[in-house]
């Protein structure tokens, strides 16, 4: 086994195992805060207890619709007829887009009605239009939940209205939110729009604002979703990006709207101020070249199988080191994408991340005469 110390030594900051800090507290029952690029959890408070996600349920409703759009099973301009069932939701006192019975509404307008103004009527109309019934759409929601690894979540409707069988955790909602941001950047932009005007048939246009209070503060917030149920009080999934860095919080159990806005903003600012995120390696960029044995080339370029980031608290400068571990020289033939070793990232001597090193190119075996000559050189001189 060979070890190659990558020329990556910079002054950074020590990484803590603990996820909660005595100098920081937030006035909510359930909390989780994550650095998006590294995936590091910066703060958590009872993140795996069951909550009723309220309108944060609509994140999964949007994900399923985005999946159907990407798969070509619907389009933004597909028109959906509003059923009586969906229309009655607009008359029930819940947050609403105010769709009209038997009206024809595009998928894009329904998505905006869900994402921007949190319309429960839009959820039912979209679910029925894309799956036939809301119940069948909820099946897709739960299948997607299992696919992306939500461990303590069950959906029983598309809107998040009161239902004991519609539950989740702040950790699962965080996973769901990160998945959406990573996989649907072209649709995620809907979440930062502050107003939506519904030019409804048979009535004056209705303009409503986004219920996410952080969008109006010019701090880089671009999503995601508020929620309220009397049993759970006020909740919020919020994401904020400054330069290349993004952090995301999911919080539930605020007593008031004001505390939801104030405390979430305090936590997001704390995460940006307290920590830095360092890029150790970038996927698809050549990291180093390694020696090859009996190949048509003497070297092979390698890269990491994924981008590698480390998030660390500030003001505690230490050394990060990255060590490449592999069996060398590398035997041929080599195919592009073959795993050739691992990159081990250490902070203060402790292993923090380990990712695979893969070949960026094919390397064929040399011909028989070249192999014999190289083998002879090795036997005589130890020269590979």
CATH top level of the largest domain is: Alpha Beta
User: What is the helix tally?
Assistant: 9
Q: What Rg is obtained from the alpha carbons, in whole angstroms?
A: 26 Å
Structural class by sheet pairing and helices: alpha+beta
Largest sheet: 8 strands, mixed
Outline type = globular
Task: Detail the poorly predicted runs.
Answer: 7-22
Summarize model confidence as the mean pLDDT. Answer: 88
Q: Please write the string of helix (H) and strand (E) elements.
A: EEEEHEHEHHHHHEEEEEHEEEEEEEEH
First and last CA, distance = 16 Å
Helix content: 25-40%
CATH topology of the largest domain: Beta-lactamase
Question: What do we call the CATH homologous superfamily of the largest domain?
Answer: DD-peptidase/beta-lactamase superfamily
Bin the strand percentage: 25-35%
CATH architecture of the largest domain: 3-Layer(aba) Sandwich
Count of distinct structural domains: 2
Oligomer: single chain
Instruction: Kindly state the number of beta strands.
Output: 19
Search tags:
five-stranded antiparallel beta sheet; globular; 384 residues; 30% strand; Peptidoglycan synthesis regulatory factor (PBP3), Domain 2; Beta-lactamase; 9 helices; alpha+beta; eight-stranded mixed beta sheet; 2 domains
Can you put this structure into words, describing what you see?
It contains 9 helices and 19 strands. It has 384 residues and is an alpha+beta fold. The chain folds into 2 domains: 2-12 and 280-381, Sandwich (Peptidoglycan synthesis regulatory factor (PBP3), Domain 2), CATH 2.60.410; 28-254, 3-Layer(aba) Sandwich (Beta-lactamase). Strands 1, 2, 13, 14, 16, 17, 18 and 19 form an 8-stranded mixed sheet that branches. A hairpin with a 7-residue loop joins strand 7 and strand 8 (206-209). Helix 1 (58-70) packs parallel to helix 4 (120-131) and helix 1 crosses helix 5 (134-147). The longest helix is centred in the C-terminal third of the chain and has 18 residues, at 257-274. The model is unreliable at 7-22 (pLDDT under 50).
């Amino acid at each position: 086994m060979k070890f190659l110390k990558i020329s990556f030594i910079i002054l950074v900051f020590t990484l803590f195992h603990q996820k909660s800090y005595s100098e920081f507290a937030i006035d909510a029952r359930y909390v989780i805060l994550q650095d998006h690029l590294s995936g590091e959890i910066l703060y958590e408070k009872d993140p795996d207890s069951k909550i009723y996600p309220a309108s944060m349920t609509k994140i999964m409703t949007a994900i399923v619709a985005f999946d159907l759009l990407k798969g070509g099973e619907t389009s933004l301009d597909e028109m959906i007829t509003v059923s009586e069932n969906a229309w009655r939701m607009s008359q029930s006192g819940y947050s609403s887009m105010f769709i009209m019975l038997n009206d024809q509404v595009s998928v894009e307008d329904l998505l905006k009605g869900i994402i921007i103004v949190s319309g429960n009527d839009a959820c039912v109309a979209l679910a029925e239009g894309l799956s036939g019934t809301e119940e069948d759409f909820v099946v897709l929601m739960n299948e997607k939940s299992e696919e992306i690894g939500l461990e303590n979540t069950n959906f029983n409707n598309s809107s998040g209205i009161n239902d004991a069988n519609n539950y989740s955790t702040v950790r699962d909602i965080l996973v769901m939110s990160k998945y959406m941001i990573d996989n649907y950047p072209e649709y995620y932009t809907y979440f930062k729009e502050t107003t939506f005007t519904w030019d409804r048939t048979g009535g004056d246009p209705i303009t409503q604002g986004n219920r996410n209070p952080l969008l109006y503060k010019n701090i880089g917030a671009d999503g995601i979703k508020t929620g309220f149920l009397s049993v759970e009080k006020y909740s919020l999934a919020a994401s904020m990006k400054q330069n290349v860095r993004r952090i995301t919080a999911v919080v539930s159990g605020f007593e008031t709207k004001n505390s939801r806005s104030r405390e979430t903003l305090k936590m997001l600012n704390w995460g940006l101020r307290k920590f830095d995120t360092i890029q150790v390696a970038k996927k698809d960029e050549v990291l180093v070249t390694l020696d090859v044995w009996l190949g048509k080339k003497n070297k092979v370029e390698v890269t990491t199988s994924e981008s590698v980031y480390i998030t660390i608290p500030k003001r505690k400068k230490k050394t990060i080191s990255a060590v490449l571990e592999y069996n060398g020289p590398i035997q041929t033939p080599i195919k592009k994408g073959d795993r050739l070793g691992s990159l081990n990232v250490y902070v203060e001597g402790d292993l923090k991340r380990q990712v695979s090193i893969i070949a960026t190119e094919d390397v064929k075996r040399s011909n028989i005469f070249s192999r014999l000559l190289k083998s002879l050189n090795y036997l005589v001189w130890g020269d590979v």
